[in-house]
Amino acid sequence: MLFCKKVKPKKMIIGENIKQAALIIREGGLVAFPTETVYGLGANALNPMAVAKIFEAKQRPSFDPLIVHIHHFDEIYALFSSPISHWVQKLAEAFWPGPLTIVHKKSTSVPHIVTSGLETVAVRMPSHPTAIALLKASECAIAAPSANRFGQISPTEASHVTKQLQDIDYVLLGEKVTLGIESTVVSVADEGCFILRPGVITAEDLEKVVPLCSHNPNETIGSLSSPGLLHSHYAPTKPMYLLDNTMDILPPHSGIIVHTNKKNWNTAQALFITSQNGDKKEIASNLFAAFHTMEDNKAIQQIFIEPVEENGIGIAIMDRIKKAVFKYK
Ligand code: TXA
Ligand code: MG
User: Fold this and answer.
1) What is the dihedral of CA 95, 98, 103, 105, to 10 degrees?
2) For a designed S-S bond to 295, which of 29, 171, 236, 255 qualifies (C-beta 3.0 to 4.6 A apart)?
3) Across the chain, where does the E strand assignment appear?
4) Alpha carbon 267 to chain centroid distance?
5) Residue 97 and residue 111: Cα distance in Å, rounded?
6) Residue 153: what pLDDT?
């Protein structure tokens, strides 16, 4: 006789218990945790079965590699292959702990599932106190993409995580996520570094420390430079359009996201002002919260978003905005 076992949905714990969360990581489970950039969805980076659960929970395609998080510089010796480019140390001294991810040739101990078969691995040392405490207590490196469903909006609050993902063991609460957009990702070799994804650490910041290359020094023929960098990403589940500044009247049921309080938007059903005075750090820190708020508002059918000037952090902000509106151009 055959017994049909009912598959129960996983029981997700939401709390502040670092020890319990670390134990789950050590035992091969999934923990969502705050970092200074966005919430991450973490698993033991050296346990391929645990890492596979990340791809399942996020419905992330297997071609999109993960970032490995560490809390001590010496952990790179187990993750990067020798010889390690001397620029790694320079970058780490200048920007770690913090929102910089370094892609470098990987060592053989990094499982292929983490790097999607690439010969490089992405590593970051976060500065968020909860992330650091979790890394220390887990006693292992943690692979963690942003804790959202693939292609959807990155989470900056625990509620953004629970809205999108179910198959997680623990959602760790902690101090606020301050920066609000994902880390700058750079590919590093002896020649210098190449920016794969813009972030709060800008090209000008990097240039002070390491030469910037015009091409990816780790790119091998036939490989994608950074497979996760698709044109459409970070997108709310409602149409989003760039706001044309000559527009005064919005179609009915429109939400609008602007970055100063200069203009009166009476015809908008909902208004989100990311910054009163156009401060780019403030805009970045509120950007994904604005996306989530508009997505959750049932009265809104489409969203208009004001562009920002593409310089400094504005490059990273516009990168996220362009990816959110890409499908609807
Ligand atoms: O701020 C952040 O970076 C957050 C927090 C949680 O640390 N993480 C994050 O991870 O944004 P994720 O998976 O959403 O984005 C990682 C990006 C992807 O675009 C991926 O393609 C790229 O990093 N990446 C990872 N490994 C790579 C590699 N070996 N070569 C090139 N790109 C890589
Ligand atoms: Mg992501």
Assistant:
1) 80
2) 236
3) 13-15, 31-34, 39-44, 67-69, 100-105, 120-124, 142-143, 170-172, 184-189, 192-197, 240-242, 254-258, 270-273, 302-305
4) 33
5) 24
6) 94
Q: Does the beta carbon of 197 lie inside 6 Å of ligand 1?
A: yes
**Binding site membership of 121 for ligand 1 (Cβ less than 6 Å):** yes
Cα 280 to ligand 1 centre (Å): 22
Percent pLDDT > 90 in the chain is 83
Atom of ligand 1 at shortest distance to CA of 227? 21
CB 224 near ligand 1, within 6 Å: no
Q: Note whether 115 and 64 are within 8 A (CB).
A: no
| Strand order across the beta sheet in which 302-305 lies | 240-242, 302-305, 254-258, 270-273
Taking the CA atoms of the chain, what radius of gyration do you get in angstroms?
Answer: 20
Quick one: pLDDT band at residue 223, thresholds 50, 70, 90? Answer: low
Q: What is the mean pLDDT of residues 36-44?
A: 98
- pLDDT above 70 (res 8): no
Could you report the per-residue pLDDT of 151-174, keeping only the tens digit for each? 899 999 999 999 999 999 999 999
Residue-wise pLDDT for 62-119, tens only, equals 889 999 999 999 999 999 999 999 999 999 999 999 999 999 999 999 999 999 999 9
CA of 154 to the centre of ligand 2 (A): 6
DSSP 31-89: EEEE-SSSEEEEEETT-HHHHHHHHHHHT--TTS--EEE-SSGGGHHHHBPSSPPHHHH
The vertex-225 CA angle with 192 and 109, nearest 5°, equals 80
- For the chain, give the mean pLDDT: 92
Asked if the model's pLDDT at residue 18 lies above 50, the reply is: yes
Ligand nearest to the CA of 69: 1
Is the shortest distance between the CB of 44 and ligand 1 below 6 Å? no
